[in-house]
Design goal:
The chain is of the alpha/beta class. The protein is 34% helix and 14% strand. Strand 1, helix 2 and strand 2 form a beta-alpha-beta unit.
Length: 378
């Protein structure tokens, strides 16, 4: 697949009228719907009669895996993939909650904050790493994160990041190295922020030096206060298509997903570039997990290890268009993808990145209160 066909999964869902709150992505829509249908989302897809069959039941994001890899898995192992799709972390979580740990799915693909939430609520099985010989190929930067210490419940699948998009024709990119630069007075009315409450507040927390997963009310209040001082610079909040205010000339720099910058370049704006801030980019990552009481756990481990095989991880990364956490897979990618530092930043920058985890309902309510105030400040 050419790397000129990037389309974030979030953007695809917005185009089709479906909203997302989760940080996750896809690209290069191929039109395939492997061994299942998104129509199964509304019903009990796991109720398909598979008694006596050698199967693994996979519940994944829409258009988020290579059909060729699935076919190769069944050909090699004899295990049939029963494939169903969801369109948001919230939809996936709600459905499994309703199933009350019946074990009707064998593998799911939640993002980091939902891994955190689901493991805390006892909704996931612990993964047996001895059954995953290909686990060794995963980069250390993606392992042992706060949302799942020691990767007891999750295995990295694909990842991306939020950093600073910069129009090099308008701004000297060599002067942009920090989230703090968004506050500079010369950028009045020319900054874009994404319409994502948690990620915007993380910028404030990073600038203040506070933990991004803090639940301390004073930290969140101070993040609001420093963000409110940026509001004269903010032209718009945009998560529908963060590249568009840049393409249309409204904004010169601001918060954006790395995939959106790639899309803008592909759509005739090569001057838009991406900076990983020195305080750390905000990372998203989708992960493979085994739901509690899954009926085919041995097959689930076989499937996960097959996905982790470098050649398969490389196919998925190239076809879907986001970074693979597998170092060995990256070595197999075309140079124009593997060497693109927007997709694969240097290790010293990646080591500073932070993943979003779950916070309490009361903390979310506090974020919402200050988020509403912040919008009024514009």
């Amino acid at each position: 697949m050419s790397n000129t066909k990037f389309l974030t999964r979030r953007r695809f869902l917005e185009i089709t009228g479906v909203g997302l709150a989760a940080l996750s992505g896809m690209s290069a829509l191929s039109g395939c719907q492997p061994t299942g249908s998104s129509d199964e989302i509304e019903g009990e897809s796991a109720a398909v009669n598979t008694d006596g069959k050698n199967v693994v039941k996979v519940y994944n994001w829409t258009e988020y895996i290579s059909d060729d890899v699935l076919k190769a898995f069944t050909k090699e192992t004899g295990i049939e993939v029963v494939y169903s799709t969801f369109d948001s972390n919230e939809a996936m979580y709600a459905k499994l909650k309703l199933m009350n740990n019946r074990g009707d799915y064998d593998i799911i693909f939640p993002s980091t904050d939902f891994v955190d939430k689901m493991r805390k609520e006892g909704m996931l099985e612990q993964i047996d790493h001895s059954k995953l010989p290909n686990f060794k190929h995963l980069g250390k930067a993606f392992l042992d994160a706060g949302f799942d210490p020691e990767n007891k419940f999750s295995i990295p699948y694909l990842w991306g990041s939020s950093g600073i998009a910069v129009n090099k024709n308008r701004v000297d990119i060599d002067t942009i190295r920090s989230w703090n630069d968004l506050w500079r007075p010369e950028f009045e009315g020319r900054v874009m922020l994404m319409n994502d409450m948690r990620d915007v507040f993380i910028i404030g927390l990073l600038v203040l030096g506070y933990p991004v997963m803090t639940e301390e009310p004073q930290h969140i209040k101070e993040s609001y206060e420093i963000l409110s001082k940026m509001m004269p610079n903010v032209r718009t909040f945009n998560s529908d298509a963060p590249r568009m205010p840049f393409i249309e000339g409204e904004t010169y720099l601001g918060m954006a997903w790395n995939g959106e910058v790639i899309m803008a370049q592909d759509q005739g704006m090569p001057e838009l570039d991406f900076v990983y801030p020195k305080e750390g980019a905000i990372m998203w990552m989708d992960n493979m997990c085994i739901p509690k009481n899954a009926k085919n756990q041995d097959n689930a481990h076989v499937f996960i290890d097959f996905i982790l095989r470098p050649e398969n991880s490389a196919i998925i990364s190239e076809e879907i268009g986001y970074g693979s956490p597998s170092e060995a897979a990256k070595d197999l990618l075309p140079p124009e993808i593997a060497n693109d530092q927007i997709i694969y930043p240097p290790e010293e920058l990646l080591s500073l990145a932070t993943f979003r985890g779950d916070v309490s309902d009361s903390t979310m309510a506090l974020y919402q209160k200050y988020w509403d105030r912040l919008k009024v400040d514009m």
